[in-house]
Amino acid sequence: MKKSRSERWKLAVYFVLRVLVVLLMIRELLLAQWYNALLCLLTLVLFMVPSIVEHRLKIDLPNTMEIIILLFIFAAEILGEIGSFFIRVPHWDTMLHAINGFLMAAIGFALVDIFNRNPKFQFNLSPAFLSFVAFCFSMTVGVLWEFFEFFADRLLGFDMQKDTLVNTIISANLSDPGSSKLFVIRDISQVVISGTVNGEITDTVITGGYLDMGLYDTMYDMMVNLIGAVMFSIIGYFYIKGRSKGTMAKAFIPHVFTEDEIEENEKHGKKKKPLINLK
Question: According to DSSP H, which parts of 118-245 are helical?
Answer without folding.
Answer: 127-156, 215-241
